[in-house]
Known about the structure:
Blueprint: H1 18-49, H2 59-85, H3 93-121, H4 126-136, H5 141-152, H6 159-183, H7 196-204, H8 207-217
Amino acid sequence: MTASGSACEVPSSSGWEVRLYWRWIAYNSVAFVIVLSVGVALALLGSDVLHLSLASGHVLVALMIATLGAVLFGGVLGSLQWLVVRERVAIARKAWVTANIGPALLAWLLVIMPAVIGAQNSDQDVSMAYLLAASQSLALGPLLGLSQSLVLRKVTTRWKWWIGANLASWLIVDAALLLLSQLSGDFDVLRGDGAVAEVYLSLIATTPLTGRALLWVLAPSALTVTEDPKPEHGGGA
Length: 237
């Protein structure tokens, strides 16, 4: 039973619910656009204002910017995802958002910040370097699934499947992008010179796959809790 009451669509035994499926796609898409756009501003701040360079001893500043980027990612993406998750289960917003920050911090530290610093040191386009690094950090997607699954294991017996679902969705998208880059020279995200629209698409493309998986993982028959999820206007901290 969804939190919205009997007036809303009742999920099937497989967890399928059209309304929540499209909300998941929409919310994740909006989150990626916000995160990438504000992330560009952070990258430009680091290069044009703070003049980040490993050689000049700005490692601490780079770490601070990476932390800000990770908090942005976890806060925006996690909060919007939670609006869908809480309609099936009573998970605290703080727990879900926090589960997004750890993987995001790794992405910023291992992929994004090195690309931004490298672009500045070689006088390349910092904003494009950030966008490409963000899309190439798809490889860290399974870590996000693992972190979120630790929250889901308290409420569903299918929590382990969420790890596999995230891994499968990221691998499928990566494989599709690689194939497209081989077939068309105009689609070169993985080779480092793709258009901005392609970078956004590479992240958004995972949402239909993860959305379907989430609804199955949180199907009523798989839940281990008996209380109703919080209503949409309720708090989540």
